[in-house]
Amino acid sequence: MARRPVALAAAVVLVLEACGIVLLNWILSIVVDKQQMSLAGLQPRAMSVGSWAAGGLFGLYLVSCAVILVRAAVRDRAPGGFARIVLISAAVVHGLLGAFAVGLVGWVAFLAMMVTLGLLVLTLVAYGEAGVRGGQGAPGGDGGAPGGPQPAAPGAL
């Protein structure tokens, strides 16, 4: 199966998305600052800095997900426990963003979110759970549960 190319493609998409999010929030902070916009008495400068900081943090989150995917592709091994949780959270975020995007932005944004979601889910499914091995490599050598019934000896009734 083509696990590595899918993981690398997902990483590239996440880096591009991170750049877009940071750029969008930077522009939004400039607009808020220039127009002196305020929400519920909050200072315009605080809103501008908050927008920029939120964009930076979300961009950093997406880049960290991309680093996890590149590491998994280079090593050709499933990400560990915490890294897997981070990737699952990214998939959930993209699912929610896609649901909101279809109503607020349009179908093209929804499609972009669903492509990213699909790449993340495909990567998670392709690599499977970390440390799971089946068949003859399992403890006990029979592919069954370690404490389960043992197969009968040949010729025994």
Proportion of residues in extended strands: under 5%
The share of residues in helices is over 70%
Helices and strands: which structural class?
mainly alpha
What is the 3D form? elongated
Specify Rg, calculated over alpha carbons.
23 Å
Largest sheet: none
Tell me the quaternary state: single chain
Describe it for me?
This protein has 157 residues and is an all-alpha fold. It contains four helices and no strands. The protein starts with a helix and ends in a 30-residue tail after the last helix. Residues 131-144 have low confidence and may be disordered.
SSE layout and pairing:
Layout: H1 3-35, H2 44-75, H3 81-104, H4 107-127
Helix pairs in contact: 1-2, 1-4, 2-3, 3-4
Give structural attributes.
157 residues; mainly alpha
Provide a brief overview of the structure.
By secondary structure, the chain is mainly α. It has helices at 3-35, 44-75, 81-104, 107-127. It is built from four helices and no strands.
